[in-house]
From TrEMBL:
Subcellular location, record wording: Cell membrane; Membrane
GO cellular component entries: ATP-binding cassette (ABC) transporter complex
Location, primary (coarse class): membrane
Keyword Transport: yes
Protein name: Transport permease protein
Organism encoding this protein: Salimicrobium flavidum
């Protein structure tokens, strides 16, 4: 545990001391909020209005997209934080860790927890934008979603660690991750509903772990119990797999299992790469 906490604390210290990284990490989420939340909200609400039954509440696109923006922040921060593994190899710090009596599993868990903590903190900071966006989420809902944000950050950081253990250069890591991250964002329901999509694309949506993370966050933050089922369908919040509706418990269980499996794969790959 001491080794895990030491690695976790080091990654957090590095993050808060790097002001350029701290400020730059918010540029993409805020840009998406301005473009999709502000510039495209009118057109998206008009388009979605055609799918809404008469007599139901209007579709608030900003309310729909904000949890997706937070999930996108978790995704990008968690995965790109794993690049510190490659940097530690280049500067020789990783050799110091490897000769210490710390297991490979502890190193992977420490890195995963550090990246997940940083991502969760960034997601919480985005909550302070809620009043300026004219939104009114329940305070208890925001508190309840934080533990899941950390769990999702662990799962996504495990994915980043797996790539970081295989790829040897920061340039190759950035290129590979960028190719991976953008489809995961756009095919997760973060920015627009993923219902009524082509069959092959629907398969990609259902195997995308971010899809289930975004769905859980939206169900917690948006008051879905008071929204009619047709509106939920139009918003893409009634996620189904093989014709069966996916429960929130099943989604949380899937994310937890995904995180555990990725940590195991990352540890195995990390052990082989640094043997």
């Amino acid at each position: 545990m001491e080794g895990i906490l030491a690695i976790w604390q080091r990654d957090l210290t590095k993050f808060f001391r790097d002001r350029a990284r701290l400020i730059g990490s918010f540029s993409m989420p805020i840009l998406f909020l301005l473009i999709f939340g502000g510039g495209m909200s009118g057109s998206m609400e008009t388009m979605m209005a055609g799918n809404m039954p008469e007599g139901t509440e209007g579709f608030n696109y900003v309310e729909f997209v904000f949890p997706g923006i937070v999930a996108m922040t978790l995704l990008m921060t968690s995965i790109f934080s794993a690049m510190s593994v490659i940097e530690d190899k280049d500067f020789g710090y990783m050799k110091e860790i490897l000769v210490s009596p710390i297991s490979r599993v502890s190193i992977a868990i420490g890195k995963m927890l550090g990246a997940a903590t940083i991502a969760t903190i960034q997601g919480i900071i985005l909550f302070f934008l809620i009043p300026f966006l004219g939104l009114s989420y329940n305070i208890m809902a925001l508190v309840q979603v934080i533990p899941f944000m950390f769990l999702l950050g662990c799962a996504l950081s495990g994915l980043g660690l797996l790539f970081a253990s295989i790829i040897r250069s920061t340039q190759g890591f950035q290129l590979t991750v960028q190719i991976l991250v953008m489809p995961m964002i756009f095919l997760s329901g973060a920015l627009f509903p993923v219902s009524n999509m082509p069959a092959w694309m629907d398969v990609v949506v259902k195997i995308n772990p971010v899809t289930y993370g975004v769905d859980v966050m939206k169900k917690i933050m948006i008051d879905v119990e008071n929204i009619p089922a047709p509106v939920l369908d139009a918003m893409g919040l009634n996620l189904t797999v093989l014709g069966q509706e996916v429960t929130m418990f099943a989604e949380v269980l899937f994310i937890a299992g995904f995180a555990a499996v990725l940590v195991l794969f990352a540890t195995f790959s990390f052990q082989r790469a640094n043997a």
